[in-house]
């Protein structure tokens, strides 16, 4: 009734060691693919984040440059805030707030945030003449002598809860075109 013959090859199954080895190889392959997908996703998110930061910085720099070149004179200056008298006689203010990490452009009732997530920003003021023997402008703290404004900032964002990438330092020196030279 019962025969002790071996079943044909088409009906044979895997042995336990074969199944365990196959599962181990499949697990290692899946772990490698998951880690590659995670790394690639993080890299793409980081790249998109950096491109967005750079675009926002470039837009802010364009607005700052356009506006500062056309002002009549500097009314008030410190490292976080500069107030100009614009060509139409109205005040034009650029103000950096370290607590909110924003740079804001204020003209009349119009407030526009130019930069967000800005870790540091500094305004510096210079005279138009250069230091003897160099091409560097002479620093100034007197608004009557201020002919050039230097702006530098660094922005960064968190990616997956960690401050992952930081934009490189953006710096620009803008010469006020309309301002008359001070007579000594």
Folded structure, characterized:
This protein has one helix spanning 16-69, and strands spanning 73-77, 81-85, 91-97, 102-107, 110-115, 118-130, 137-139, 148-159, 162-166, 170-175. The strands form two sheets. A five-stranded antiparallel β-sheet has the order 1-2-3-4-5, with helices on one face. Strands 6, 7, 8, 9 and 10 form a five-stranded antiparallel β-sheet that branches. The N and C termini lie far apart (124 Å). Helices cover 29% and strands 37% of the residues. Strand 1 (73-77) and strand 2 form a beta hairpin. The protein is of the alpha+beta class and 184 residues long. The chain is built from one helix and ten strands. The mean pLDDT is 85.
Task: Briefly say what this structure is.
The protein has one helix at residues 16-69; strands at 73-77, 81-85, 91-97, 102-107, 110-115, 118-130, 137-139, 148-159, 162-166, 170-175. With 184 residues, it is α+β, with helices and mostly antiparallel strands.
């Amino acid at each position: 009734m019962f025969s002790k013959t071996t079943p044909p090859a088409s009906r044979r199954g895997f042995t336990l060691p074969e199944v365990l080895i196959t599962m181990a190889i499949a697990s290692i392959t899946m772990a490698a693919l998951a880690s590659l997908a995670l790394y690639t996703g993080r890299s793409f998110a980081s790249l998109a984040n950096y491109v967005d930061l750079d675009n926002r910085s470039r837009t802010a720099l364009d607005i700052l440059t356009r506006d500062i070149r056309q002002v009549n004179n500097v009314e008030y200056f410190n490292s976080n805030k500069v107030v100009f008298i614009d060509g139409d006689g109205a005040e034009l203010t650029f103000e950096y707030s370290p607590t909110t990490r924003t740079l804001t452009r204020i003209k009349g009732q119009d407030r526009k945030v130019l930069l967000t997530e800005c870790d540091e920003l500094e305004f510096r003021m210079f005279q138009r003449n250069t230091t003897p023997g160099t091409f560097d402008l002479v620093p100034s703290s007197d608004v009557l002598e201020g002919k050039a404004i230097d702006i530098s900032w660094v922005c960064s964002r968190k990616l997956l809860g960690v401050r992952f990438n930081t934009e490189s330092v953006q710096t620009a020196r803008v010469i006020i075109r309309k301002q008359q030279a001070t007579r000594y």
